[in-house]
Amino acid sequence: MSEAEVINKTLQLNTRQSIAEDLYKLGVDRGATVLVHSSLSALGWVCGGPVAVIQALMDVVTGEGTIMMPTHSGDYSDPGNWGNPPVPEEWWPVIKETMPAYEPEITPTRGMGKIPETFRNFPGVIRSSHPLLSFAAWGKNAKQLASNHSLNNALGENSPLARLYDLDGWVLLLGVGYDSNTSFHLAEYRAPGSKPFRGGAPVIENGQRVWKSYNDIEFDTDVFPQIGSGFEKQRSVRKGKVGLAPSRYFKQREAVDFAVEWLTKMRKA
Fold this sequence. Notes:
alpha+beta
């Protein structure tokens, strides 16, 4: 959506202050530990853009709370697995040999949107070490969330998602649907019947750039909207608008536990 289209659909100007007020109304509060998935354009035009949105989130949760966002970089991966778009097979060896190593401080996000890409560069933000599926965090529990992110099984038990589960944190879907809810991936590991996957990425090891292979599972985000629909029927989900964006706010642990049950039944069927 172009900026002109966003302006045309915005009936009331969004500011840092108005975004914060909408977040309060949704239930986000001081001291919360929250994983944020977002779409800037869904909010309508915001004075200050992604910076204002991030500042509003920080105003609401304060330093007593924690904000986490996915900062994935899907192009830092095995080109043999690329499909959107694919590249010629004869390029694969050269890509694997020459792609720069993942570095949390400089590697850009891919397909995450302007808010996470801006957030990763904010002062005090810590980014995790996974070259493909990193998360960035700010606030009281940032170090606990972003440290020791395993290369293997990137969204499983040694991931920021599992640490958020341990902290009984929240998920904020800010203008996006359940297909963006990465916490359901944690459930994919915990439900029986996951399929193994072999990945690879360029990392720095002992001061040197190396191509590193790792073990993981295949993900199936196509079922996430169905899981989300069922979750809303059985659990408490706070709904409202932040700016123009239909938004949801819920406990991550409840969502993961529900998804484990849903996937277990589906995989046995």
